[in-house]
Specification:
This protein has 160 residues and is α/β, with parallel strands linked by helices. The protein has four helices and ten strands.
């Protein structure tokens, strides 16, 4: 094995394992729930609510917990609708997001709600047309929300 191949192998072996996260695709009155997970206005990037899957709980149970923490809403989790991967080549960070359709069963968005982890500080419902004026990830989110079936987004770099 030449030096370049050894270096590539060493980089691969030192990479962190992928983190698994869950996200909810919630359409309410034909509007999609989005959150901004960059507190303090660091970024204007929006995404579907959710977060890290904790070991020992199912993906749907993790999603129920994450959605309540970030939004104060209680949901019923439905079918998976998207698998999305993203990474930061500079740090080796790699995350696999599993998106599920979800339905609100209790609660309303309340401006006074605080995410206990302090990550999400803004949340809102948007129409498909309003998404045209927002920065969001993944790019396929509108197609997933207002479409059907299961989609897969291949590995894409993180943006801020």
């Amino acid at each position: 094995m030449d030096k370049a191949a050894r270096l590539r192998e060493a980089e691969r072996m030192s990479a962190k394992p992928p983190r698994i996260a869950v996200r909810g695709v919630i359409l309410h009155e034909n509007r999609l729930l989005l959150v901004n997970a960059w507190p303090g206005g660091v970024s204007d990037l929006w995404c579907a609510p959710g977060g890290r899957a904790e070991p020992g709980a199912s993906l749907p149970d993790n999603l129920v917990r994450e959605l309540h923490e970030e939004t104060g809403l209680t949901v019923e989790v439905g079918d998976p609708c998207l698998v999305n991967e993203f990474h930061d080549p500079g740090s080796g960070y790699h995350q696999v997001d599993v998106y599920f359709r979800a339905t609100i069963t209790a609660g309303i968005l309340d401006a006074g709600w605080r995410d206990p982890s302090g990550v999400v500080d803004r949340r809102r419902f948007v129409t498909r047309a309003e998404m045209g004026g927002l920065r969001f990830k993944p790019d396929s989110l509108p197609d997933v929300a207002w479409g059907a079936g299961l989609l897969y987004d291949p590995l894409e770099p993180i943006i801020r």
